[in-house]
Amino acid sequence: MVRVRFAPSPTGPLHIGGVRTALYNYLFARKHNGTFILRIEDTDQARFVEGAEEYIMESLEWCGIKVDEGIREGGNYGPYRQSDRKDLYRQYADLLISKGDAYYAFDSTEDLEKKRKESEARGDTFIYNASVRGTLSNSLSISENDWKVKLQKGEPYVIRYKMPENEDIHFNDLIRGNIVVNTSTLDDKVLFKSDGMPTYHLANIVDDHLMEITHVIRGEEWLPSLPLHVMLYRSFGWNWPLFAHLPLLLKPDGKGKLSKRDGDKMGFPVFPLYWPYGEIARGYREDGYYPDAFINMLALLGWNPGTEQELFSIEELVDEFSIEKVHKSGSRFDPEKAKWFNHVYLQKKTNDQLAMEFREILRTKGLHYDISELEVLVSLVKERVNFVNEIWEQTDFFFRAPETFDKDVVAKRWKDDSPSVMKELMEVLEQINDFTPASAEKVVKSWIEAKNYNLGNVMNAFRLLIVGASRGPHMFDIISWIGKEETLRRIGRGVEILGSRNKQ
Ligand code: GLU
């Protein structure tokens, strides 16, 4: 029975790398009919940020990553927030002490700093382990009587893991293969702090064991902790889960890890949702991304099934996903590709859906339209946009007559005979009863032909008066949508404003 967990620390908004970790865990759980657990790792109280926990849950919800067991969902292995499990960790630290695999250490921060400096002065790196343990203040270096007195007097202490000396530890990572690390390169990590809280390492191992986690799928930044974790499992006499460390997400130029600050610097979001509590704020949701497009994009940053296929529904991702196909090397984040995914997903939406979304944007501008009218509109421009909120830029002239006329276009397109030809066009349009695009087009084109006018000249001047520039979809689609009356009004007004301006 597969049981996996996403174990974020609520220290701020979730980075998209974290969302990808959650996603891969979720896909793996679904694929194997397993359980996806959300565990909040908040043992580091100094780094706790208000609002982060809710943000994490809301992000997963928006992405469609459903949690099976967690603080909201409950479950048989709770509580799912480490601060609510606070009381159960101490006994495990004590257990390690009784086994001789952990010890009390009384060194003050200043003492350790001094030792570190001394080592550096000699050109050594300071590692708190078997090499120096005996010279420091701990229950291994001082007499039993002395350390017991210290404990009784309530002197502050931490509990450290007693890393064995010069032993090769062998372990396996599902993505990176076999790894060997010599314990002399590792330090005696703190497991339990003087504030009465366990450190990440102890709480993480105890919880993964108690929650019967079968696979630990997490970011590569935790790979250096893996030897210690394996040692802890060994000391407890527990089986350890299988491990998979995911490759880093890299900056768009491939140089270094994609950081929280990169988004605002480079103009794309690095968070799933808007984060209201800090200066780096943008979110994919608020930028107008569809969750399924976002998830599809994210899934392919570090994994692909080995085919050319790029578009995957979440169900297809579940079917196809496998840890063996996760890449070893970092994945470069490509903001343009992210937009492309949204573009493709937007094209797949029905006009009705898009019209409903666009109607909300119009409402914020005080404009109220029927879905049926907006359906036509979105169908005309959707191929040109990546996001619904870009539809306005493509269609503003549908809703209001141009206030200004693009100077370059006037200079180029407004000819000497334009005023008279446009007045004639008004008369022609006036006569049309069926103002649908095809019908209006037929009448106007026959008139142009009969008069032997230059089609380009007429249509360019016409567009200038209706749109104010040379952009926009097919002219007859535009005038049919705005209607005969508005069309005539715009031509009349435009001719008045532009008159015979290019003659002077
Ligand atoms: N709390 C760790 C984090 O913030 C969890 C790492 C792990 O999955 O073991 O990412």
Q: Give the biggest sheet.
A: 3 strands, antiparallel
CA distance, first residue to last residue: 84 Å
**Shape designation:** elongated
**Rg (CA only):** 33 Å
Name the structural class.
Answer: mainly alpha
Helix count, per DSSP?
A: 21
Helix content: 40-55%
How would you write the strand order of the largest sheet? 3-4-7
Residue share in β-strands: 5-15%
> Could you tell me the number of beta strands?
11
Low-confidence stretches: none
- What small ligands are held by the chains? glutamic acid
Mean residue pLDDT: 95
List the helices and strands and how they pair.
Layout: E1 3-6, H1 16-31, E2 35-38, H2 52-63, H3 86-98, E3 102-105, H4 109-121, H5 144-153, E4 158-161, E5 168-173, E6 177-182, E7 190-192, H6 200-210, E8 215-219, H7 226-236, E9 242-246, E10 249-250, H8 262-266, H9 284-287, H10 291-299, H11 314-320, E11 331-332, H12 335-348, H13 351-364, H14 371-381, H15 391-399, H16 407-413, H17 418-430, H18 437-451, H19 455-467, H20 475-482, H21 484-498
Parallel strand pairs: 1-2, 8-9, 10-11
Antiparallel strand pairs: 3-4, 4-7, 5-6
